[in-house]
Description:
Layout: E1 4-8, E2 23-28, H1 35-45, E3 50-52, H2 71-76, E4 79-80, H3 93-108, E5 113-117, H4 121-128, H5 138-151, H6 153-163, H7 165-170, H8 176-189, E6 207-213, H9 217-233, H10 236-242, H11 260-264, H12 270-292, E7 298-301, H13 306-319, E8 326-330
Parallel strand pairs: 2-5, 2-6, 3-4, 3-5, 6-7
Antiparallel strand pairs: 1-8
Helix pairs in contact: 3-4, 5-6, 5-8, 6-8, 9-12
Amino acid sequence: xxxxxxxxxxxxxxxxxxxxxxxxxxxxxxxxxxxxxxxxxxxxxxxxxxxxxxxxxxxxxxxxxxxxxxxxxxxxxxxxxxxxxxxxxxxxxxxxxxxxxxxxxxxxxxxxxxxxxxxxxxxxxxxxxxxxxxxxxxxxxxxxxxxxxxxxxxxxxxxxxxxxxxxxxxxxxxxxxxxxxxxxxxxxxxxxxxxxxxxxxxxxxxxxxxxxxxxxxxxxxxxxxxxxxxxxxxxxxxxxxxxxxxxxxxxxxxxxxxxxxxxxxxxxxxxxxxxxxxxxxxxxxxxxxxxxxxxxxxxxxxxxxxxxxxxxxxxxxxxxxxxxxxxxxxxxx
Length: 333
């Protein structure tokens, strides 16, 4: 950490009145943009806790490759829905919606606010708007998995791109299980998979202030590259080796892990793995921004525009009659 930025916001009472609508402050943005640092600063300022909205950070044994909040960060402010599932476990946006809303209901029974932070757009949408029931057809899924084995992933990707170009442009097309699931929905419903993620808006018993973080492309690429270098230096290879008994799990069909297959097969060096992770992380960040930029009601900031972010919080607090607090962020890279 090389500095501290502070902005005045009011004594905020932690407990809310019976008729007062609580506030969920949502921090979104691409990977490596700086969401964790800001979410912690806001949670400290508002005397509340953080819900993690990252579909990869929910798994145990994967702290380095998924860039989970560190032990120190989690000690500074409690984080929920981090590091609580085994890699073999299946966990969906729909399950997260139910679990997160149940936690918020209990929390908001007595508290004014909470922070939701993460880069999984579907998880964020699930909490804010709800998801349409998504159809499932086991027979179609079985047939698609058989085609995956016989014809390869590329054929299924081409079919998905034809049936649902919107979803194909935003998803991880290297994840075979997600490609199969999206195609299953398209074929079972006769509608694009993306249509189930856009039409539903369920009124929630809380208000939301959505803060989006973005950086210039070159700046974000530099942060991604340095993050991957740190991951390699701090033991990503050992983490991946420990996870090899779970290699077929959906949790590991993701950036930071699947690139190691070529290393274990003797085709790539560690340096080549690192470069491939950087490339795919940059592609992943672009898909995240594609999703988030379509969201309504987002106030966008550079992460270092702390005074501007504080002003947005000040306005929200003033509208509720909440007193000032101090927004202070220790600023690393």
